[in-house]
Automatic annotation (TrEMBL):
<dbReference type="InterPro" id="IPR009075">
    <property type="entry name" value="AcylCo_DH/oxidase_C"/>
</dbReference>
<protein>
    <recommendedName>
        <fullName>Acyl-CoA dehydrogenase/oxidase C-terminal domain-containing protein</fullName>
    </recommendedName>
</protein>
<feature type="domain" description="Acyl-CoA dehydrogenase/oxidase C-terminal">
    <location>
        <begin position="229"/>
        <end position="343"/>
    </location>
</feature>
<dbReference type="Pfam" id="PF00441">
    <property type="entry name" value="Acyl-CoA_dh_1"/>
</dbReference>
<dbReference type="InterPro" id="IPR009100">
    <property type="entry name" value="AcylCoA_DH/oxidase_NM_dom_sf"/>
</dbReference>
<dbReference type="InterPro" id="IPR046373">
    <property type="entry name" value="Acyl-CoA_Oxase/DH_mid-dom_sf"/>
</dbReference>
<keyword id="KW-0285">Flavoprotein</keyword>
<dbReference type="InterPro" id="IPR036250">
    <property type="entry name" value="AcylCo_DH-like_C"/>
</dbReference>
<dbReference type="InterPro" id="IPR037069">
    <property type="entry name" value="AcylCoA_DH/ox_N_sf"/>
</dbReference>
<dbReference type="GO" id="GO:0050660">
    <property type="term" value="F:flavin adenine dinucleotide binding"/>
</dbReference>
<dbReference type="GO" id="GO:0003995">
    <property type="term" value="F:acyl-CoA dehydrogenase activity"/>
</dbReference>
<comment type="similarity">
    <text>Belongs to the acyl-CoA dehydrogenase family.</text>
</comment>
<keyword id="KW-0274">FAD</keyword>
<keyword id="KW-0560">Oxidoreductase</keyword>
Amino acid sequence: MIDTQDDVRRMLADGVDRLLEREYGFEQRDAMRKAMATGQGLDKSVLWPRLEELGIFMLAADKDAVQDPASLGHMSVVAEAMGRGLAIEPALPAMLGARLAALAGTAGVLADGQLAVVAPSILHGRESGFGAEAMDGGWRLSGQEDVWLGGDAAQILLLSARDMQGVPHLFAMPADQPGVTCTPYQLFDGRGAANVALNSVETNPAYLVAQGEALADAFERIELEASLLNACDAVGAMRGANALTLEQLQTRHQFGRPIGAFQALQHRMVDMSLVLELADALVAQAMVAACNGPDAGGWRLACGALVRTALSSRQIAEETVQMHGGMGLTEEYPAAHYFARLTSFELLYPAEEWTERFARLAPLDKAA
């Protein structure tokens, strides 16, 4: 994804890849997915402590690192590895939560080891579903937002709410606060999520971590970074799906020879490789631009990268299943899970939506 010549980035990529390959096999991951489906919740004793040892959450939460353009590249390495390894742990939501707290200048609001996730309205640039009413000694919050990625395991909910005057506020709400209802469930690809509702939740002043129009800059930046980091996850999943499909073409035999010897399948495999590299290149270019902040030019690149990634995800997901035949749809084989991961990305970041957003942006000569 991002140039891995940087020593820190290369070591981080190697560390995450080795961790996923050696200690997070498909069978173990699938057992965790099935346990979550029965309501047992995410088992954070398997992969989470090792991710903490690698320092990926501290990297996102470091207020000095937020100002370092290289830090976003480091996070992209982790996101791509998690997608390639089909990891269902909410590492990316946790990094984004720590990142937003650091961008808002309030990284200290999160205690060590706390998993904080960001409201989907912030991550997708939508109007908040929550409202805030000032009261003596605190605030009263009400509203609901759905599809909080990682919300099923979250301890802190980072949410935005406007008061009666329309001023935005950022709250760090404990998930177990009275009046907070988190309804957990699994996404199509096995990752956890939750719908969150606040019913006249009374908070103390400590839960308010930032306020004012200055938050708009932090929200726009985390939206841009979140979209591109999720695209990195999809690029990793596409890379894993392509490798699995190539192995299938080389090992499965029909008519006395590997099916990869048939020219039609060779051409389709080449097409899969081309659309992957195209998405990878566009996301990498958008990542470089995003390091300088969410200006109009950066958003144009991001929109183009997300459209291409969504289209590539669909093509590779469909081809992966088709070239595996019936086994490509079984839960016991990784192909179906790559299909689910890539389909989830396309649903969260549909190409049509980002094409329309691209069209609304100023032309390049005006954005420059």
